[in-house]
Amino acid sequence: MRVNGVELCVDTTGDAADPAILLIGGMGAAMDWWEDEFCQELAAGRRFVIRYDHRDTGRSVCYPAGKPGYTGTDLAADATGILDALGRPSAQLAGISMGGALAQKIALAWPGRVSSLVLFATSPVVRDRAGLPPPADGLRPYVTGQVPLPNWNERIGVIDYLTGYERHLESARYFDEAHVRGLAARIVDRSRDMAASLTNHALAEEGSLARGKRLDEIAVPTLVVHGTADPLFPFGHAEALAAAIPGAELLPLEGVGHQLPPRPFWPAVITAMLRLSA
User: Fold this and answer.
1) Is residue 86 part of a domain?
2) In 10 A of CB 123, how many CB atoms?
3) 168 lies in a domain?
């Protein structure tokens, strides 16, 4: 659909008459990481579930690799623009990692668009992070570029790279290599430009949305869902986030890394999301 002057790929599950849940992916993440069955189980709880490809991911608009034509504010505005296009004044926003940061900023800048918040594996967006625990050393080679990027024209090489990175993000206890490789293959096969997908979000300017705001201004029901073994945003980030938002509930996922909830945790997470969005 056409949103904010660009083309975004959007998928919906469930009855449009039901309350909406908008799923917002992480940095460089196509909608496929929000698994079909996860969306279907939310929809079975009488929710209208919306997921989408960010700019530069999946089938959405693509910019030249290394030259993102947007800011973080534009990515946040895309989320509310999708709600506009679907005729929804507000929704539960459920975001992971960068998507969780976008959800926080939307709740601060445009509070009327948010009925509730679910923040997966993310960090406070409007505080000094100096006192928060740093990423695990095992991620440093990826963050610093010591792990070479793949040849973007070699499908298997790109799938290997995505799978290898996920291996370092997810906990060994809940890393299913065959399953992750299948998701990575699906993403590679339906993406317009994997080079843009995996580089441009990190290069985009943050934008000024929610600048000068405080997390204690968020007044909607909020659930913080976080793995206790998250190597990118160690659990202290979740504790700080839950403490900063009034009334926020913290749901720890024991032994889980920087990933969407593994299937054994779906019943607890989906039940909490449905309760929050009732």
Assistant:
1) yes
2) 23
3) no
Q: What is the pTM of this model?
A: 0.97
N-terminal to C-terminal alpha carbon distance within the chain: 28
The answer to whether the beta carbons of residues 115 and 220 sit under 8 Å apart is yes
267 Cβ contact list (under 8 Å, min separation 6): none
Which residue range is the domain that position 37 belongs to?
2-134+200-276
Give a yes or no: residue 190 inside a domain: no
In a structure prediction context, what are the per-residue pLDDT tens digits for the chain, which is 278 residues long?
A: 999 999 999 999 999 999 999 999 999 999 999 999 999 999 999 999 999 999 999 999 999 999 999 999 999 999 999 999 999 999 999 999 999 999 999 999 999 999 999 999 999 998 666 789 999 998 888 877 788 899 999 999 999 999 999 999 999 999 999 999 999 999 999 999 999 999 999 999 999 999 999 999 999 999 999 999 999 999 999 999 999 999 999 999 999 999 999 999 999 999 999 999 98
Lookup result for tokens 């089938």: 59
Q: Based on the structure, what is the number of domains in the chain?
A: 1
Q: Which helix (H) or strand (E) holds 83?
A: helix 72-85
Taking each continuous run of H as one helix and of E as one strand, the counts in the chain are 9, 9
CATH number, domain of 227, equals 3.40.50.1820
Looking at the DSSP assignment, which residues form a beta bridge with residue 12? 50
Residue 250 lies in a domain: yes
Per-residue CA distances from 245 to 119, 143, 145, 158, 248 (Å): 11, 29, 34, 39, 6
